[in-house]
Design goal:
alpha+beta, Arc Repressor Mutant, subunit A, 3-stranded antiparallel β-sheet, 8 helices, 6 strands, globular
């Protein structure tokens, strides 16, 4: 069980990548939940999608005052936009063909994002900005570069747990702030 605890503290556990850890996680699920509950962390498991990770418990309306162990990261507009577009691709894929994997080429991602980014005279800089966003999503574990082809990426299904209704609502608020700021200048 110690390997599972350590793996969760390091990041996401995927059934497809580490089936032994995944089985250990499921077999010891209650003990793991209790262990992390003591330090203010919550175990999130999606058995149907095959991933698990830790998130900070919400103590806003309680008397418990524990420090944050998991820091929230503020994402830039382009990275947030790419998250939303990747989530949309998963949704469209799930409703259209039921194939579990979404594979996109670099060109497809560039085409999707370019519509929403400010027009620049230098297309190369726009492409570099998009590639930077792609690398950020790879670092966050939302995209995976395919080994056999460097210009193809798999959208990881964990993005469904991160880009949920609450996340989209927060993004809508931020976009409204951007819009008001842009109109005031």
């Amino acid at each position: 069980m110690q390997k599972v605890l350590i793996a969760l503290l390091k990041g996401i556990i995927y059934n497809e990548n580490t089936p032994e850890l995944w089985n250990d996680l499921l077999n010891n699920q209650q003990a793991i939940i209790e262990y992390f509950n003591h330090i203010g962390l919550e175990l999130f498991i999606d058995e149907s999608e095959g991933y698990a990770f830790l998130r900070q418990q919400d103590f806003t309306n309680s008397e418990v005052d524990l420090p944050q162990l998991i820091t929230k990261r503020q994402l830039s507009y382009p990275v947030s936009l790419l998250c939303v577009l990747m989530r949309k691709q998963l949704l469209e894929n799930d409703t259209s063909n039921g194939n579990n994997r979404v594979i996109l080429t670099l060109e497809q991602i560039v085409d999707m994002m370019s519509v929403y980014l400010p027009q620049r005279s230098n297309e190369h800089k726009t492409r570099e900005q998009i590639e930077t966003c792609i690398n950020k999503l790879i670092d966050l574990g939302f995209l995976r570069k395919l080994k056999n082809n460097e210009n193809r990426y798999e959208v990881k299904r964990i993005i469904k747990a991160i880009v949920d209704a609450q996340w989209l609502s927060n993004l809508d608020k931020k976009l409204e702030e951007y819009h008001q700021y842009a109109n005031s200048n």
